[in-house]
Structure to design on (476 residues):
């Protein structure tokens, strides 16, 4: 039962229309914070710290620590490496991405009257990156047991050619990978018993960036509060090419087939974040924040193309219509607690704990109820947590930083790994008017990927990512 559930959710959707489903709900609910080089070098453990633009997307109370105005800009280089093992064959691919991890400005209003309990009010706005989807995966290996055409065959049985599904079985029929046997509702496959070399190349691109507008304050240098209006926007593109080739020339008549699929998603959303930080003593701080669900308006556009070739030299091509669908996505609530130990002007250690219940994500539409998809979300995802730890040692004007992150798997019943681990480090130089920070993050994650739901075994994909960022800042 466990394997059946997993196959239903995480297989490649090669034989159906591109669907708005639980896979997309998880993709846009998971956050891997970007932001400034200082924050990322310290594992983004900034929930009880402040005076860094990244906190506007994590715990907005941190804006209250600003004593002056500041502008920051963080270009980043992202290198995504994917290693796959499928049917005993190992392959790898690399994708490079240049992006802007952060850009923003904070204005600090400091009262001139020393007797005022409010020591400052701060306003900030700009952009932080919340997720980076850039990667490419190459999967290849022999399959002597079955073919993706087996699924098209099962879907076509009992249906006349005129009524075949245009994003799958109709294309297979028009390229003669499926054909009828006597009856118009009885079909046979060009690959009846497997025996092909299967491969799939998948290229992902896009990101989630969040525009933030934050207001915060500092009460008596003890209590810091802040709220952020967040406006995340999504851009995601998935392009894939799946092939089956009769490399051993053991399948009568059949030479090869190719399925190209293209999916593009765009969306905008809204959320609100509220946070508190309390300075218990000069060297101990605690923080807490709550992030409301993000309410997204999304749109998918998708298309497919299938080609076939045969031993007699015949070649055929079929294309699906251009599909489009608009829907709504609500991501889960996020809660976090934090603690930091600040040792004068010399060092600090901080830790954040974040709670998210991914089973609370929901898909909605005015024309489709998503009953099955939302039930699947409840069954296969779970409440989980993220842990972030960071440290900084100062040798003025130089600072040395390090951090660690662990995002626990969102999958229930251990149906997949999905746990992300990251280590980070960096350096910074700070002066009265400017600062320059350099950060590096190394992260790994392993997941199973099924080429289609009846494939005998998955491809085990390991993602190893390198992210280098440079923050340029100016105080005024």
């Amino acid at each position: 039962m466990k394997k059946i559930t997993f196959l239903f959710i995480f297989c490649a959707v090669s034989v159906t229309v591109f669907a708005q489903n639980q896979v997309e709900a998880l993709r846009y609910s998971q956050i891997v914070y970007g932001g400034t080089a200082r924050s990322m070098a310290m594992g983004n453990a900034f929930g009880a710290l402040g005076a860094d633009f990244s906190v506007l997307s994590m715990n907005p109370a941190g804006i209250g620590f600003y004593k002056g105005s500041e502008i920051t800009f963080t270009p980043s280089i992202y290198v995504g490496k994917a290693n796959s093992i499928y049917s005993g064959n190992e392959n790898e691919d690399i994708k490079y991405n240049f992006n802007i991890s952060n850009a923003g400005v904070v204005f600090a209003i400091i009262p001139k009257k020393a007797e005022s309990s409010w020591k400052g009010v701060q306003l900030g706005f700009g952009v932080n990156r919340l997720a980076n989807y850039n990667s490419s995966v190459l999967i290849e290996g022999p399959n002597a047991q079955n073919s993706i055409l087996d699924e098209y065959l099962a879907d076509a049985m009992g249906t006349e050619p005129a009524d075949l599904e245009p994003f799958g079985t109709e294309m297979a029929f028009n390229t003669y990978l499926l054909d009828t046997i006597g009856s118009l509702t009885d079909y046979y496959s060009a690959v009846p018993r497997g025996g092909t070399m299967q491969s799939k190349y998948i290229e992902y691109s896009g990101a989630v960036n969040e525009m933030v507008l934050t207001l915060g304050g500092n009460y008596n240098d003890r209590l810091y509060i802040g709220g952020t209006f967040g406006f995340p926007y999504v851009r995601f593109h998935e392009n894939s090419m799946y092939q089956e080739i009769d490399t051993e020339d053991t399948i009568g008549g059949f030479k090869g087939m190719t399925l190209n699929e293209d999916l593009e998603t765009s969306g905008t959303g809204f959320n609100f974040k509220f946070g508190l930080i309390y300075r218990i003593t000069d060297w101990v701080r605690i923080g807490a924040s709550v992030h409301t669900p993000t309410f997204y308006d999304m749109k998918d556009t998708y298309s497919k193309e299938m080609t076939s070739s045969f031993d007699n030299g015949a070649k055929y091509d079929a294309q699906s219509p251009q599909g489009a669908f608009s829907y709504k996505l609500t991501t889960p609530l996020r809660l976090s607690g934090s603690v930091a130990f600040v040792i004068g002007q010399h060092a600090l250690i901080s830790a954040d704990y974040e709670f998210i219940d991914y089973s609370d994500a929901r898909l909605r539409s005015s024309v489709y109820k998503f009953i099955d998809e939302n039930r699947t979300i409840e069954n296969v995802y779970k409440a989980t947590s993220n842990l972030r730890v960071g440290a900084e040692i100062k040798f003025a004007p130089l600072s040395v930083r390090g951090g660690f992150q662990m995002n626990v798997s969102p999958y229930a019943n251990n149906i997949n790994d999905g746990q992300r681990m990251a280590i980070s480090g960096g350096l910074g130089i700070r002066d009265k008017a400017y600062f320059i920070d350099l950060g590096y993050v190394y992260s790994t994650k392993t997941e199973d990927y099924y080429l289609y739901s009846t494939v005998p075994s998955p491809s085990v994909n390991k993602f190893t990512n390198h992210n280098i960022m440079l923050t340029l800042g100016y105080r005024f």
